[in-house]
Amino acid sequence: MCCGTKRLVEIPCPADCPYLTSAREHPPAVTVRQQQRDIDLLAHGMRDLSERQSQLFFMINSFLQRYEPPELQAIIDDDVIEGVAALASTFETASRGVIYDHRPTAPPADRLAAALKPVIAEAGKHGGSAFERDAAVVLRRIGEASQEVRMADRANPRAYLDLLGRMFKEDRNSERPGYT
Q1: DSSP calls for the chain
Q2: Tens digit of each residue's pLDDT (9 = 90 or more) over 34-70
């Protein structure tokens, strides 16, 4: 019991400890359940997306996970929801041939949208109105997913961003992101 609760916290375990190795290979059940919930939530957000839309979905979510506001003021899920909604509206109007830049009202959401827009534009620089429609669909879907996660965990204003942090955590032993 002592080893299980104080391992690597109070007890300096040797690297070859079989209990430590086992604990790393088999995470606690609560962690496994959280991982499964996270995967289910993202899979639900990706339902019916094309391959290109799925790639865009992951690219935008990866950007959101890594995003650091210039003023070092952390963003919350409401900023994500408002920022992606404004960008979705911008891409929807652009796909119809109308150039109009929809802007979020909250300054953090506006800064997020301003940082995300060129990333999306670069990804679809030769895609035309078809890409703009895809981007709008994906941004709306991300907004819906963040709203769902936010409503499921009302006490946490960063519930969706925390989910992205768990899903897109950088694996130090690998060159690609992964769930650790």
Answers
A1: -HHHHHBTTTB---TT-HHHHHHHHS--HHHHHHHHHHHHHHHHHTTT--HHHHHHHHHHHHHHHH---TT-----HHHHHHHHHHHHHHHHHHHTT-------SSHHHHHHHHHHHHHHHHHTTTTHHHHHHHHHHHHHHHHHHHHHHHHHTTT-TTHHHHHHHHHTPBPTTSSSB---
A2: 888 899 988 998 999 999 999 999 999 999 999 998 8
